[in-house]
Amino acid sequence: MSGEQKAEAKVEQAKGKLKETAGRLTGNEQLTAEGRAEQATGNAREAKEKAKDVFKH
Q1: Does the N terminus or the C terminus of the chain have fewer Cβ atoms within 10 A?
Q2: What three-state secondary structure class fits 28?
Q3: pLDDT at 15
């Protein structure tokens, strides 16, 4: 399951990056902020999974 969670984190990071870029290109600050928040959530999820892996071994 950990691999699946890591993949979801990567997808969330990528979606966030796309939103942030689209927001910047269109001048939409709300979309930019949503993208940054999504990236942060993905980063946190990825860090959690990495920490779980460290304590497994």
Answers
A1: C
A2: coil
A3: 96
